[in-house]
């Protein structure tokens, strides 16, 4: 019998199996940020849920997106501003809609990415493109006891407020940022890399060269983001399957999100140390065979993982 997992597992196949839409944030809504946003409208598994730019609001965005360079990407979508802080995008063909929150903070530490449910952000401002500066977007790590104390004092979970869990820099980044080139070495991007950069096109040696090739570069950024999401999402899904004692539970959104938040937070300095068994899972999803080697069929995927973990 034919099994789709008998062939090479591509990133898109992994994301299709996860059947989850990841909520993404964009920091900086200039020409690059808008190009990535427009490309994402036709990109499965990704939904831009929040934009931060102190100089552009939702109403101004509607006017900016009428530019000819975005016309092809936005065809079939109705984009309107509900207010200066909220944009709504309607897909006329599928009769669906999504709402994007607009934030106007200057300092990354003041952005509450978690409020709209954002865990991954794309840094497009060109300002926070070093490892240290980009890390200012990240959630502040806390131990379990600190989490309980925070909840007791404030009545909410830490997860309900705070920064993102991972940052992808979509502009020239400093030498201290792991940088990957989709189509060349994107599979070298590991789960532990919580700040990464997307390489510029070969013909573009500086950011000013991107003005005529924004559409192609935005697709490169989203390709790299897909690799990040495939590793992160699969790891969270495996944690769900191990906890429940059955095969991977694709489509179970609530436990999936809880486990995604947990495993991503374990990367952040100051957080509760993760279990050694989690490190075994991370080793699996980081391996090159996870993405581009033949894998098991869907019915025995969880069993294979159980054997792998128990053998270590």
Automatic annotation (TrEMBL):
What's the superkingdom here? Eukaryota
Gene3D superfamilies reported in the protein's UniProt record: NAD(P)-binding Rossmann-like Domain
One Pfam family here: Gp_dh_N
Q: Which UniProt keywords apply?
A: Oxidoreductase
The yes or no answer to whether the keyword Transferase is present is: no
Q: Which residues form the Glyceraldehyde 3-phosphate dehydrogenase NAD(P) binding domain?
A: 22-198
Q: Name one GO cellular component term.
A: cytosol
Citing just one GO molecular function, the answer is: glyceraldehyde-3-phosphate dehydrogenase (NAD+) (phosphorylating) activity
Q: Which GO terms describe its biological process?
A: glycolytic process
What family classification does the UniProt entry report for this protein? Belongs to the glyceraldehyde-3-phosphate dehydrogenase family.
Output this protein's name. Answer: Glyceraldehyde 3-phosphate dehydrogenase NAD(P) binding domain-containing protein
Which species does the entry assign this protein to?
Cadophora malorum
């Amino acid at each position: 019998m034919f099994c789709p997992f008998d062939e090479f597992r591509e990133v898109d196949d992994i994301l299709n199996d996860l059947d989850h839409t990841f909520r993404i944030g964009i920091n900086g809504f200039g020409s690059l940020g808008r190009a990535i946003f427009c490309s994402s409208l036709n990109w499965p598994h990704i939904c831009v849920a929040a934009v931060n730019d102190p100089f552009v609001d939702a109403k101004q965005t509607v006017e900016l997106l009428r530019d000819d360079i975005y016309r092809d990407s936005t065809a079939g979508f109705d984009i309107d501003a509900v207010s200066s802080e909220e944009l709504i995008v309607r897909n006329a063909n599928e009769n669906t809609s999504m709402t994007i929150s607009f934030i106007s903070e200057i300092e990354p530490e003041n952005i509450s990415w978690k409020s709209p449910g954002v865990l991954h952000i794309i840094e497009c401002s060109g300002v926070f493109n070093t490892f240290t500066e980009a890390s200012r977007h990240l959630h502040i790590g806390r131990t379990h006891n600190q989490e309980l104390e925070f909840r007791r004092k404030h009545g909410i979970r830490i997860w309900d407020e705070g920064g993102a869990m991972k940052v992808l820099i979509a502009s020239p980044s400093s030498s201290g940022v792991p940088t990957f080139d989709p189509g060349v070495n994107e599979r070298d991007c590991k789960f532990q890399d919580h700040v990464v950069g997307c390489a510029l096109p070969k013909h573009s040696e500086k950011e000013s060269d991107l003005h005529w090739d924004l559409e192609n570069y935005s697709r490169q950024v989203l390709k790299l983001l897909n690799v990040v999401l495939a590793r992160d999402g699969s790891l969270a899904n495996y944690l769900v399957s191990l906890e429940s004692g059955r095969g991977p539970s694709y489509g179970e959104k609530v436990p999936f999100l809880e486990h995604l938040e947990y495993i991503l937070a374990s990367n952040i300095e100051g957080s509760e140390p993760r279990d050694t068994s989690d490190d075994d899972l991370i080793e699996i999803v980081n391996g090159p065979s996870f993405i581009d080697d033949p894998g098991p069929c869907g019915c025995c995927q969880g069993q294979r993982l159980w054997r792998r973990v128990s053998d270590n």
